Amino acid sequence: MAGRLEGKVAVITGAASGIGAGTAERFVEEGAKVVIADLQAEKAAAFAATLSNAAVSIACDVTREEDIAAAVDLAVSTFGQLDCMVNNAGIVGAVGSIADTSAEAYDATMNVLARGVFLGMKHAARVMLPRKSGAIVSLASTAGVIGGLGPHVYTMAKHGVVGLTKSVASELAASGIRVNAVAPGSTVTDMTSDVVTGDIEDKDATAAAIAEGSPLGIAGFPLDIANAILYLCSDEARYVTGHTLVVDAGQTTGGTAAAFHGQTADVVREAGRRGI
Ligand SMILES: NC(=O)c1ccc[n+]([C@@H]2O[C@H](COP(=O)([O-])OP(=O)(O)OC[C@H]3O[C@@H](n4cnc5c(N)ncnc54)[C@H](O)[C@@H]3O)[C@@H](O)[C@H]2O)c1
Predict the structure, then answer these.
(1) Does 173 reside within a domain?
(2) Are strands 55-59 and 9-13 parallel, antiparallel or unpaired?
């Protein structure tokens, strides 16, 4: 059976580690060729080498338009086309109280998380429009759908990713290009290990802490998010655009409301009988 991305070519930003690296591995398993684009050039090159002839790497700072343009052009010159753009590179950015957040920290954070995604969409569209096909997936966050789950500027930027996804999807739908986002809940990567334990190597403690706060009682790993990105990039999602797929073990459902679970059955049955 052919892979779910057989014959497709992807650029994945921030693919030297975490969710981006997991996505690159998953994409290659499903038959894709990938460009590993990351600020950490050496790590990106070493990782691409593990994927043999299915991957190339490029040093890329997503805040720089020429770097994003070069990553997209590398996909076309090396593999012939661009089918999937995954705008994944990210940082936690400015933390702290709104009263204490500097304008410089705001700008630096928005540059990576918002400008970087904007540039990724722009240059993917540049090469996808003539072919009238393609899928763009950007990494939002649960902090992009509700407040209180991340720092202020991160939350603003990730809400922006959700908004830009809808806006660009509405423009590019007529050209056969789908534009979606994935909003992960806490996922075990260097980024979260750093925040949760202060030690990017301590993934076990990070996973345990995430599982404890998770409605499903489990931690998310890059593979969990990669599978959602894979779906949205594949032809299985041909009818899906402008959507933000939340992958968070129920973190944004609003709580488990355990006190109500034994008490609503009669009401639900009554409602069902009336056809509501
Ligand atoms: N880990 C989580 O819990 C979680 C939750 C929600 C959303 N996300 C989002 O998922 C994405 C990936 O996060 P992760 O957890 O895998 O993080 P990570 O720190 O493991 O990986 C991020 C990668 O992005 C690269 N990067 C950072 N700044 C860059 C820049 N300016 N240009 C190019 N590359 C750059 C880093 O070098 C790194 O390889 C981010 O957008 C993040 O906001 C993560």
Answers:
(1) yes
(2) unpaired
